[in-house]
Write a structure and sequence with these properties.
22-stranded antiparallel barrel, five-stranded mixed beta sheet, 11 helices, mainly beta, Serine Threonine Protein Phosphatase 5, Tetratricopeptide repeat, Immunoglobulin-like, 977 residues
């Protein structure tokens, strides 16, 4: 018997060698050949387990039906009859030769008595079969006879597109055959056809009988299908759909009815037209619209959105002709949306159209020319002042900058950021609101002389994307990208990322010629560059919203300020700011609205200042500030004429760390346990009322409590009156405060040049203003105003910066007053045209005392000279006009400014006080929009006169003034899709 079995193996070996060598003349075949030979030799020696191992390895490398037969024989020798049966059956399935099949069938018959056979048949056939568990591996495909040992088993059948089926087979006995039939349930997906009322739905073949009538539900096999949905009088809609298993897929076929035409035109072209919340084009346009009743919305940036309901008829034109009304709404004046004429403050708006036409690169550039506003650039930061309150070295900390109502000033110096240190561009901004006068009643500290609110683009921006690039000012290269996503009518999201860089300018400072090496000789070359990057966005869903911002700005300092080495590229400052704000503003009925706002903020500063070895080498200053805040507000409106606002706010500045060190070591280390954390709490109450149709009043107060200095109460009252139909008169009065900053309170270098000033009190400003606006027509208005500001406890530097007389911050004992008048005439945007002119006169004086007589007569303190950096005269003329068949807009802005006095304000100073000269800056920009390509472009020149004017500098500089930008060019392009 053994010799007979060996003969069979040798015969099979011959067949194997022939087929394997012919089919696989490679290394794998050689290895399989070797394993087969080793298996045959082991079989000959009676070492069946060794033989089985090699046969299995050979078959795994190169599958072969003859080797499968050998495996079965080997299992038979090992008396593992179920395994032998399985491999005999596999060999039989693969064998075509009749003689060989007879031999295999005979082998099966010989061991049949030792095996329990389960004959498995499935519906549908071809299912993969498993015994007991799937992880034990498949036993083949049905129909299939499974050879098993005596016992009980679970038979499992699985097939793609079907639910698994299983059955329990109990008490199988050797030598017996049991038949098992398994029916697999097909896996289906549900297709829900919504809308298209009454339309017939056919699946995959338009000629088939209808499967259902919409709206309806169908159970279909998973995978791609095509629906044909139509009914008489409508076009058949072809809808490709992917049906997902065990899930419901919803489709809403667009079964188009007979069409008519909707013709929409506006006096201002380019307004977005939405029909039933779907954009269909820009005015003027003719749109194909389905017959029936529709809701049409027409909106344009800077104008009020208009809604109309129209009925479109078959093969007829339905016309809408509109004259758009300028949108003059402001949020920042009262933290609620209201008309500018009703706002309890003096307000200017920089419309989105102006931002586009003039392609302003920064907030400061956009604000240049706004009445009462001026700016300066010391090549470290750009700062703005309002109505004579722009103290040198303050970094704009008396102006509060908001983004959609979220304060962005830092918590170290309180600086406002208005240059490239604020945003990389203004492409996300819908408009800029400039609110002059005290705003602490709404916002607390830093809302001292004014508030600037950046309003981001509205929720109505459709889904799409934008990319853009530009160059401007000192060769700034900028790139940006933005994505907009709408989630129906109630939700949406936008996010943008941008980056910019510049090599800056070269400077020559004669003040440094005698103190710098010959190779420098007062020149600062290639040390004025910056790099900046932004990531910002907003998301909303109904009354919930969130906004976020991250910005970093790294700027070299070319001026030698803080006693640094001129022309040293190591001297630079880096500001990193981020915030996240989440808010909920549900309306509870007609009378009550709640607002809950939470925010997280972080500010990080790094300054590196290169000095010679005698001056300490490289100084490194760092600051890290982190804080959280929570605000709760309740607005109660018992009638349209009355509104009450009650709210409270808390802030916890849990990280306030500052450190300064040079090559000699740290001279300031207030970090961790030595940090200066502090808390802020506030409560406010406001009331707005219409006493009679021409009379309106707004009054309120806010109480702020600080753990650093104490508390401050700040009221505001505004009386508004319409003396005649086209006139609006405002009488405004209020108080604001500025809390002493962490830097002013605690920064020091151990007394070498500066000491801490922990006992500072907050600054206070009292303001009174009378403003009258007359409307000459639908688009032309004129405004005149007179104002007065009275500042007490003004925080200024004292000391000469030596060890004997170190710098410290003190509250001035005498007040500062600024009084002035403003006038403005403006033609609002209409059909691409705009024209505006304004003039501001401001006189700022350090008063001799606190008496009423000193205030009324503006009696100057004899120990003081003129107030520095407070221009008396500001004038602007700007406009825009469409040219080249309205395809291009020419924008122009001329700003004229009078002289400013420098920082030498102390009459005892041996240096005489000087003043800078007046100047005129003329900007000219051509811009356009190609709707077909979604391309908005601008090209122009700033300071076309190339007027090389200078502005004063703070005491940190050796120089007393610095030249501002001369002529620069601007090119920008933005593509929307």
């Amino acid at each position: 018997m053994r010799s007979q079995a060996l003969g069979v193996l040798l015969a099979v070996a011959a067949a194997w060698l022939s087929s394997a060598h012919t089919a696989h003349a490679d290394d794998t075949a050689d290895e399989a050949d070797l394993l087969f030979q080793l298996g045959a030799e082991a079989y000959q020696r009676g070492e069946y387990r060794e033989a089985l191992k090699n046969f299995l390895g050979s078959n795994r490398l190169v599958p072969n039906r003859n080797v499968v037969f050998n495996i079965a024989r080997t299992y038979e020798k090992l008396r593992q009859y179920p395994e032998a049966y399985r491999y005999f059956v596999s060999a039989l399935d693969a064998e075509k030769d009749a003689a060989a099949r007879a031999r295999i069938e005979d082998a099966i018959e010989q061991i049949k008595a030792q095996v329990a056979v389960v004959d498995v048949v499935t519906d549908p056939p071809g299912a993969t079969l498993y015994v007991d568990r799937k992880d034990l591996g498949p036993r083949g495909e049905s129909p299939k006879k499974l050879g098993l040992a005596a016992g009980s088993y679970k038979i499992i059948a699985d097939a793609p597109g079907y639910e698994p089926a299983e059955t329990q087979v109990k008490d199988l006995k050797a030598g017996k055959t049991v038949q098992v039939k398994l029916a697999l349930k097909q896996i289906l997906g549900t297709l829900s056809v919504e809308g298209a009322m009454g339309a017939l739905v056919r699946v995959d073949d338009e000629r088939r009988a209808p499967a259902c009538t919409a709206p309806c539900r169908l159970d279909l096999p998973p995978g791609p299908h095509t629906l044909f949905v139509g009914r008489p009088g409508f076009r058949t809609a072809t809808v490709p759909v992917e049906v997902r298993p065990r899930r419901t897929t919803v489709v809403r076929p667009d079964v188009q009815a007979l069409m008519g035409e909707l013709v929409v035109s506006t006096d201002e072209p380019g307004a977005l037209i939405e029909v039933n919340d779907k954009p269909v084009g820009f005015t003027p346009t003719i749109a194909k619209v389905q017959v029936g009743r529709h809701r049409v919305r027409i909106g344009l940036r800077g104008f009020r959105t208009v809604e109309r309901e129209v009925v479109v008829k078959k093969d007829e034109q339905t016309r809408i002709d509109l004259t758009l009304t300028q949108s003059e709404e402001v949020i920042a004046a009262a933290r609620t949306t209201q008309n500018v004429e009703d706002a309890p403050s003096s307000v200017s708006l920089i419309a989105g159209k102006e931002l586009q036409v003039m392609a302003y690169p920064t907030i400061a550039e956009a604000m240049r020319g706004v009445r009462g506003v001026y700016q300066w650039d010391d090549r470290a930061y750009v700062s703005v002042g309002m109505r004579g309150l722009g103290r040198l070295g303050s970094y704009g900390n008396r102006v509060l900058v908001l983004v959609d109502g979220m304060p962005t000033n830092d918590n170290w110096i309180g600086s406002s950021y208005v240059g490239y240190d604020a945003r990389t561009d203004l492409a996300d901004i819908e408009r800029i609101e400039v609110v002059r006068g005290p705003g602490s009643v709404l916002y607390g500290t830093n809302a001292f002389s004014g508030v600037v609110n950046l309003v981001t683009r509205s929720r109505g921006v459709p889904t799409g994307g934008e990319v853009g690039a530009s160059t401007n000012l000192d060769g700034v290269a900028r790139g940006r990208a933005r994505a907009n996503v709408r989630f129906g009518n109630d939700g949406g999201l936008w996010t943008s990322v941008a980056g910019a860089r510049s090599s800056g300018r070269d400077f020559y400072f004669p003040e440094y010629v005698a103190t710098t090496p010959p190779e420098v000789a007062g020149n600062a070359r290639d040390v004025d560059g910056f790099r900046t990057g932004s990531f910002a966005g907003r998301a909303w869903w109904k009354s919930l919203s969130a906004q976020w911002s991250y910005h970093q700005h790294d700027k070299q300092l070319p001026t030698g300020q803080y006693g640094t080495l001129l022309d040293d590229p190591r001297t630079h400052q880096r500001d990193t700011r981020l915030f996240f704000e989440a808010s909920a503003e549900p309306r509870l009925g007609k009378e009550l609205t709640l607002l809950t706002r939470a925010h997280l903020n972080h500010y990080r500063f790094l300054g590196e200042y290169a000095r010679d070895a005698a001056g300490g080498g490289l100084e490194r200053d760092t600051f890290r500030g982190s804080w959280v805040g929570l605000e709760q507000r309740v607005v109660y409106e018992p009638s349209p004429d009355w509104r009450f606002t009650l709210g409270g706010e808390g802030q916890y500045h849990y990280q306030v760390d500052q450190r300064a060190a040079d090559d000699a070591g740290a001279f300031l280390d207030e970090q961790g346990d030595n940090g200066r954390p502090y808390q802020v709490g506030a409560a406010y109450l406001l009331a707005d009322a219409t006493l009679a149709p021409p009379f309106r009043v707004s009054a309120g107060a806010r109480f702020d409590a600080y753990s650093t200095f104490g508390n401050s109460l700040n009221p505001r009252v505004a009386l508004m009156f319409r003396p005649y139909a086209d006139g609006n008169l405002k009488l405004l009065g209020g108080k604001a405060f500025r809390a002493p900053s962490v830097y002013e309170l605690y920064y020091n270098d151990g007394g070498a040049t500066q000491i801490a000033s922990p006992d500072l009190d907050p600054e206070s400003i009292y303001s009174l203003e009378l403003e009258h606006t007359h409307r000459f027509g639908p688009t032309v208005t004129g405004t005149v105003s007179a104002f007065g500001n009275y500042v007490t406890n003004l925080i200024d530097q004292a000391g000469s910066g030596t060890a004997a007389d170190p710098v410290t911050y003190v509250n001035r004992g005498t007040p500062l007053a600024s009084v002035g008048v403003e006038a403005e005439v403006r033609r609002e945007w209409r059909q691409g045209w705009m024209l505006g002119a304004s003039y501001t006169y401001t006189r700022s004086t350090m008063l001799a005392g606190e008496s009423f007589d000193d205030l009324v007569n503006l009696r100057q303190d004899p120990a003081m000279r003129r107030v520095g950096n407070a221009p008396e005269h500001l004038g602007t003329l700007k406009g825009a006009v469409p040219i080249l068949a309205r395809n291009v807009t020419l924008g122009s802005r001329l700003t004229i400014e009078g002289p400013r006095y420098d920082r030498v304000e102390d009459a005892a100073d041996p240096e005489p006080q000087r003043r800078t000269g007046g100047f005129a800056v003329w900007d000219v920009v051509f811009s356009g929009y190609e709707a077909h390509w979604g391309l908005r472009w601008a090209a122009g020149v700033y300071n076309a006169f190339d007027w090389r004017y200078s502005l004063p500098l703070s005491p940190e500089f050796t120089q007393r003034r610095i030249t501002q930008n001369g002529r620069t060019f601007l090119f920008s392009g933005d593509l929307s899709f």
